[in-house]
């Protein structure tokens, strides 16, 4: 089986090769801009046709990438195919010329070759060459021919024609008749070059001698090798019927519209016979060699001779039909006569154009430049003339147009830039219209999707976001969500969110908030504290997944809302180790006497920091009251004899939050008959005496402090006594001049005493002591000062000084001075105040008042003013009275109040105690030394410092008071 198939394939190949060599047709030729090849029919699959890659000048290695292919109509059989590896055109399936081209003549296969990048279209015609693969055949294997014995010599009897589907020389070429003595054969040629045979009577017949004659008719074609077909002819010799029918004319020609319905009369044939009776009755029929296709389309009425249309005819399939009709009488030995009828079909515009869409580049990129080829469109109209001329167009509302490349071939190209975000898909209506009457058209729709390009950056729904988060939030809680849109699609529209790098109070922003990269939900990573951070902003970025990626940023403002999470804090008085602050109140105090001020701060803001004060507990509620806004503790009435000497108060501070938070402070007031003459530190009374007495550490501290104080005082007394004794010896040796002021009256200081002492003190005559200050050193003369203490000095640590003696004139003793005197040098340069007592601003506690955090600034400004005024204590008084450089110059130290009387009192926030800042002291009679009358602050509880150093408690003393 395999050997037989191989042998047959080899024979076909050799025959095809021989045929191609003889005709010389395989060489490609360019005709009308086309390539044309010839290939014999009946080649098997894979047979070589042509090398298109070489003939078209294409790079064989790029054929696959450029999608080199044959474009054919939908449903059409693909007889030929292209090998993309080598560009060879080969036979895809068996080509039967007789099947592909029913009509004779040249059989062509029209191929459209398409190659992309860039788009090129080629037209190739492949002529299918006929091979002699069919032998002539007769309709019947045996044919009966009746011939009257009276037939004359030379009478012709048409014979059935043999049929051969092959064309040209491969079709029926001639006929042969087997040798006999009565008949000969004569071959005739029709107008279409087809052959038919007629039997010619060569010898008279005699029915009585031989009633039948048998001959063999052979039909031969002209192919190589020659093929033949045979039919047996039985000649029956009949009795004489000497007249035959005669047609009006031997050939007829009629025209018939191709859309004629079945039953339409094609032609009325008429034949006459001179005989009478049955010999003159004529019957019509198709001749024996009428093709089957003719018998399917037409019908001949036997009696009337009418030729009727039996089936639909198609001009596009065959425009001409040739019919052979015979007529014979019904007599014995009837002789049939033949006529030819040519039926010309008239073309009717009955075929609408056919549109074949071949997509090339779909979807098309939205950034494709104008002129980009989208598809190749072919149109075909099977009609002829104007009925077959076709125009093609697209709807005007799309950015596409048709450009004609070859006849009935168009390319669909873009006319402008596309935007997928505006129109993601185009439904292009293509209208093909012929020129017939009436006009027929075909509407075809091509869907062209637009492929997305990442040409749109994400866009946030809001230009910025403001988020309000309550403080003390739970870590990990969602605080807000940002959202962005990207008009692109698929990967180009997939957005991921991120937070831009940055720092918040020195910490990376990623430690405060995070964001879900897919949903845009933002989460707080830590619990926020309004008191530490009130607001911050971050940059959120939305980036798509396109290439290259596009992004957009948006600012998210995060505001932390205050929550009442901080209770008020008592800053004055401040309890220490369970003790309560104490204060002395004179029993003589009248109503409205300011006992002290309770000060508190609240770290919250707004209503949460609005503080109110109330007296929660008291020994006697009728005796004291607390100002609800300022916290000032005042007396409501005068003290009575039956009032307790110790009054215990509990003051509550409450903020305005919801729910309100509060703090309490306990105060212990001691009612005394008279206030002490000197300021002493307020002691703190423990709430439980048992605890204080039972603490050995406290006892040890008290014993140690007492021993040290006693030793220090003893050392001072000894040094003072020794110094006074030395001064007296000096006074006795030299004496003191009355105009000069020394520690010893009437004595004069020696040079040794001036070198060894900077301060000498001696009592003056009378009841008032004089103060002499003689400073060694070169320069102007020395000065004497008499320090007089008024009533204010008895109630305060400050000594108010005034000059006690007239200035000493150096001119009187200038000649008697044997050694230089040491005088007080007064510098004219104003030195900067000593700021060592003030802590740095970074170490000062930032407290918030009960009104708002902005009040802290006012408190700081008030404290700054106090500091500046306090610095005037160390400022020379040259602004008030400049020391003259003359001989009578007097330098008198003047101590004016730190706060003049015209300065208004500060508000209640002045009572805030800030550790490390100077403490303002109140006098014993309730008058504030700094100018605030009848006000005392609990900030002084246990914290007052002595600001003066004094030598004696007399009314007038000699003082060396260094303010630092």
UniProtKB/TrEMBL annotation:
Q: Which GO terms describe its molecular function?
A: calcium ion binding
Q: What organism is this sequence from? A: Athene cunicularia
> Cross-referenced PANTHER family, in alphabetical order?
CADHERIN-87A, PROTOCADHERIN GAMMA-C3
Recorded GO CC terms: plasma membrane
Membrane spanning residue stretches? 697-722
Top-level lineage group = Eukaryota
State the Gene Ontology BP annotations. homophilic cell adhesion via plasma membrane adhesion molecules
Q: What does this protein do?
A: Potential calcium-dependent cell-adhesion protein. May be involved in the establishment and maintenance of specific neuronal connections in the brain.
Question: Region Disordered: start and end of each range?
Answer: 809-852
Q: List the protein's name.
A: Protocadherin gamma-C3
Q: Which segments constitute the Cadherin domain?
A: 31-138, 139-247, 248-355, 356-460, 461-570, 585-682
User: Cross-referenced InterPro entries, in alphabetical order?
Assistant: Cadherin-like_dom, Cadherin-like_sf, Cadherin_C, Cadherin_CBD, Cadherin_CS, Cadherin_N, Protocadherin/Cadherin-CA
Name of one Pfam family that matches: Cadherin
**Segment forming the signal sequence:** 1-33
Q: Where is the composition biased (Polar residues)?
A: 817-832, 840-852
Specify the protein's topology with respect to the membrane: Single-pass type I membrane protein
């Amino acid at each position: 089986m395999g050997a037989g198939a191989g042998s047959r394939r080899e024979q076909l190949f050799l025959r095809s090769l021989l045929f191609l060599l003889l005709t010389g047709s395989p060489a490609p030729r360019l005709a009308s801009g086309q390539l044309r090849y010839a290939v014999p029919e009946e080649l098997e699959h894979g047979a070589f046709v042509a090398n298109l890659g070489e003939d078209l000048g294409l790079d064989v290695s790029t054929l696959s990438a450029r999608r080199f292919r044959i474009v054919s109509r939908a449903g059409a059989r693909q007889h030929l195919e292209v090998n993309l590896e080598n560009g060879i055109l080969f036979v895809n399936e068996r080509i039967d010329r007789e099947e592909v081209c029913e009509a004779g003549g040249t059989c062509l296969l029209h191929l459209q070759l398409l190659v992309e990048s860039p788009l090129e279209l080629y037209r190739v015609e492949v002529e299918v060459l006929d091979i002699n693969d069919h032998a002539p055949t007769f309709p019947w294997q045996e044919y009966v021919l009746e011939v009257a014995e009276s037939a004359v010599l030379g009478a012709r009897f048409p014979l059935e024609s043999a049929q051969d589907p092959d064309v040209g020389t491969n079709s029926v070429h001639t006929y042969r008749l087997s040798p006999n003595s009565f008949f000969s054969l004569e071959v005739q040629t029709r107008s279409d070059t087809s052959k038919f045979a007629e039997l010619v009577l060569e010898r008279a017949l005699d029915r009585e001698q031989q009633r039948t004659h048998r001959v063999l008719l052979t039909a031969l074609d002209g192919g190589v090798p020659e093929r033949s077909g045979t039919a047996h002819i039985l000649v029956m010799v009949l009795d004489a019927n000497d007249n035959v029918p005669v047609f009006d004319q031997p050939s007829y020609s009629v025209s018939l519209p191709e859309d004629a319905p079945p039953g339409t009369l094609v032609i009325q044939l008429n034949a006459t016979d001179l005989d009478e009776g049955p010999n003159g009755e004529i019957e019509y029929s198709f001749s024996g060699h009428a093709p089957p296709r003719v018998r399917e389309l037409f019908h001949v009425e036997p009696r009337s001779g009418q030729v009727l249309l039996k089936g639909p005819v198609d001009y596009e399939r065959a425009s001409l039909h040739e019919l052979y009709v015979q007529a014979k009488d019904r007599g014995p030995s009837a002789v049939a006569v033949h006529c030819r009828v040519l039926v010309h079909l008239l073309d009717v515009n009955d075929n609408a154009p056919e549109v074949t869409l071949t997509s090339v580049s779909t979807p098309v990129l939205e950034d494709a430049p104008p002129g980009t080829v989208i598809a190749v469109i072919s149109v075909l109209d099977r009609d002829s003339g104007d009925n077959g001329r076709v125009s093609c167009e697209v709807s005007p509302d799309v950015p596409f147009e048709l450009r004609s490349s070859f006849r009935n071939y168009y390319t669909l190209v873009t006319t402008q830039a596309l935007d997928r975000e505006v129109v993601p898909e185009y439904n292009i209506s293509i209208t093909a219209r012929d020129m017939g009457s009436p006009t027929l058209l075909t509407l075809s729709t091509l869907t062209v999707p637009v492929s997305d390009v990442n040409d749109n950056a994400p866009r946030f729904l809001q230009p910025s976001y403001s988020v309000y988060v309550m403080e003390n939030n739970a870590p990990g809680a969602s605080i807000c969500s940002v959202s962005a849109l990207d008009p692109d699609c698929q990967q180009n529209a997939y957005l991921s969110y991120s937070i831009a790098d940055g720092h918040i109070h020195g910490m990376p922003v990623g430690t405060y908030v995070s964001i879900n990269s897919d949903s845009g939900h933002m989460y707080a990573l830590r619990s926020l504290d309004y008191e530490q951070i009130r607001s911050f902003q971050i940059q959120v970025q939305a980036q798509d997944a396109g290439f290259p990626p596009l992004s957009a940023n948006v600012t998210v403002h995060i505001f932390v809302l205050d929550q009442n999470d901080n209770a008020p804090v008592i800053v004055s008085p401040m309890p220490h180790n369970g003790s309560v602050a104490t204060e002395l109140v004179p029993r003589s105090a009248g109503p409205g006497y300011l006992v002290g001020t309770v000060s508190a701060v609240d770290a919250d803001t707004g209503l949460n920091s609005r503080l109110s004060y109330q007296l929660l507990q008291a020994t006697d509620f009728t005796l004291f009251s607390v100002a609800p806004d300022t916290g000032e503790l005042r007396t409501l009435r005068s003290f009575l004899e039956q009032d307790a000497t110790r009054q215990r108060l509990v003051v509550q501070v409450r903020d305005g939050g919801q729910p309100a938070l509060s703090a309490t402070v306990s105060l212990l007031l001691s009612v005394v008959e008279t206030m002490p003459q000197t300021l002493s530190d307020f002691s703190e009374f423990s709430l439980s005496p048992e605890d204080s007495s039972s603490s050995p550490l406290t006892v040890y501290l008290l014993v140690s402090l007492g021993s040290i104080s006693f030793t220090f005082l003893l050392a001072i007394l000894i040094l003072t006594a020794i110094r006074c004794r030395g001064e007296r010896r000096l006074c006795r040796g030299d004496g003191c001049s009355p105009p000069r002021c020394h520690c010893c009256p009437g004595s004069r200081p020696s040079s040794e005493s001036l070198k060894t002492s900077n301060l000498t003190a001696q009592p003056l005559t009378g009841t008032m002591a004089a103060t002499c200050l003689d400073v060694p050193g070169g320069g102007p003369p020395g000065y004497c000062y008499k320090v007089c203490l008024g009533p204010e000095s008895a109630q305060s640590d400050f000594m108010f000084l005034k000059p006690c003696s007239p200035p000493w004139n150096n001119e009187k003793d200038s000649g008697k001075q044997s050694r230089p005197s040491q005088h007080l040098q007064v510098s004219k340069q104003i030195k900067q105040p000593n700021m060592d007592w003030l802590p740095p601003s970074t170490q000062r506690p930032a407290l918030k008042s009960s009104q708002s955090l902005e009040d802290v600034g006012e408190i700081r400004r008030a404290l700054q003013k106090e500091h500046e005024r306090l610095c005037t204590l160390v400022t020379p008084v040259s602004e008030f009275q400049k020391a003259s450089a003359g001989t009578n110059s007097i330098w008198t130290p003047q101590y004016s109040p730190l706060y003049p009387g015209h300065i208004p009192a500060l508000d209640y926030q002045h009572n805030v105690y800030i550790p490390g800042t100077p403490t303002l002291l109140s006098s014993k009679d309730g008058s504030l030394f700094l100018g605030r009358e009848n006000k005392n602050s609990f900030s002084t509880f246990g914290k007052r410092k002595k600001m003066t150093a004094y030598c004696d408690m007399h009314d007038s003393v000699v003082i060396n008071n260094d303010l630092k």
